[in-house]
Amino acid sequence: LITIRELYKNKENYVGKEVSVGGWVRSIRDSKTFGFVVMNDGTFFETLQIVYSDKLINFAEISKLNVGAAIIVKGLLVATPEAKQPFEIQAADVTVEGTSTAEYPLQKKRHSLEYLRTIAHLRPRTNTFQAVFRVRSLIAYAIHQYFQERDFVYVHTPLITGSDCEGAGEMFRVTTLDMENLPRTTEGKVDYNEDFFNKETSLTVSGQLNGETYAMAFRNIYTFGPTFRAENSNTTRHAAEFWMIEPEIAFADLQDDMMLAEGMLKYVINYVLENAKEEMQFFNQFVDKGLLERLHNVATSEFGHVTYTEAIEILEKVNDRFEYKVSWGCDLQTEHERYLTEEVYKKPLFVTDYPKDIKAFYMKMNEDNKTVAAMDLLVPGIGEIIGGSQREDDYAKLTARMAELDLKEEDYEFYLDLRKYGSTRHAGFGLGFERCVMYLTGMANIRDVIPFPRTVNNCEF
Ligand code: 4AD
Ligand code: MG
């Protein structure tokens, strides 16, 4: 069987010849003596028209097919210069592999994204999700390529962990204990010594701490895997299970980190513009008008830079327009992030040097002793897409900060060892993969860029 992608890409090899194609019926029209089937096979963002006639012995069977049926068609590929599509198949044989029914939910009309979420197992058969999930796949490939071309080592960090990297307490517990009959210590606490790992464990919120250990061995590494957060935020940008890319670079500071992030994002944008032309055109036309122009601009101009302190000064001047008023020390909300990147800078914007109290324990303290060498990358339409920092590489400063935050040294021995044995400046960041897919496709809801979304109150399929 040949793919529709191959027919389109190398049509001169196939026009005028007999071909066999397997695919699914998108629409069907028949009259007494002949009919048309439009099918797609998912390999390319175009459909293929099949003309069939009552000369076929199963003409009646074909005419009765419902949308969604799986068929294999054999016949002559003929050029159709006047038509919308460059060619069609004149069927010599149509084999019905699997029928469908009239109740098939994806009839030829537009469905809302909300409705399609309720049929997450069927939605990849629609144009929108064909485009989203092929582009998602290409972005993943481009990210690997960016790092591999630069000799970064891909590290598989564990999903089950005993530490809370971000210290936000948003972990999903992993346990084999009997919930109905929990073992208790003499003080009445749950006795995790009885649990599978002899300790309390959770699904990881970030691979960073493990990633850092490999950066101290390989210099440049990255992770790319699922992460989990039990954040109770029911927004269009939060998922409980999402994928994160976390590079970590040794002998590098915050400037190097931002250059890496900017280079990576531009590389990935150029990659999809080049390798998913049909899909990107579709997004530009039907999902987000202006997407292509915006991405071209992002790929060819420099990102903005502002410190947190400067950003607060800008935001305080227009405090009346915000639901959450800002003042120095507060965490930036999405409304503030979007104002900065959409209205003030109108491009991707690095915000740096946040107050230490709103950031994680591992970030390097700045000389002012109030802020840390952190950076968030904000983009129009979404807000934060990347969070990163230079890491605290000084043993005494790190343990002092951990003591302030009541973190137990014995839980982080492996991490502290990195500051004992050949410590050096190093930095890294985390790119939220789904937010990156949203940014590059113009899709507005995280639920529509991950195949089977897990969000508050929702773990279907
Ligand atoms: O800013 P975050 O929390 O940073 C870290 O986890 C660091 N350990 C990264 C590092 O320095 N290696 O998360 C990084 C990114 C965010 O910028 C956001 O894009 C994404 O992960 N993210 C989420 N995406 C979807 N749903 C959620 N609930 C997310 N939480 C964070
Ligand atoms: Mg963050």
From TrEMBL:
Top EC group: ligase
Listed GO MF terms: asparagine-tRNA ligase activity; ATP binding; catalytic activity, acting on a protein; nucleic acid binding; transferase activity
UniProt-annotated location(s): Cytoplasm
Database matches in Gene3D superfamilies: Bira Bifunctional Protein, Domain 2, Nucleic acid-binding proteins
Record PROSITE patterns: AA_TRNA_LIGASE_II (PS50862)
UniProt keyword list: Aminoacyl-tRNA synthetase, ATP-binding, Cytoplasm, Ligase, Nucleotide-binding, Protein biosynthesis
Domain of life: Bacteria
Domain Aminoacyl-transfer RNA synthetases class-II family profile: 133-451
Cited InterPro entries: Aa-tRNA-synt_II, aa-tRNA-synth_II, aa-tRNA-synth_II/BPL/LPL, Asn-tRNA-ligase, Asp/Asn-tRNA-synth_IIb, NA-bd_OB-fold, NA-bd_OB_tRNA
A Pfam family per the record: tRNA-synt_2
EC number per UniProt: 6.1.1.22
GO CC terms, sorted: cytoplasm
GO biological process, one term: asparaginyl-tRNA aminoacylation
SUPFAM superfamilies reported in the protein's UniProt record: Class II aaRS and biotin synthetases, Nucleic acid-binding proteins
Catalytic activity: tRNA(Asn) + L-asparagine + ATP = L-asparaginyl-tRNA(Asn) + AMP + diphosphate + H(+)
Family: Belongs to the class-II aminoacyl-tRNA synthetase family.
Subunit structure: Homodimer.
Name the UniProt record assigns to this protein: Asparagine--tRNA ligase
Organism: Anaeromicropila herbilytica
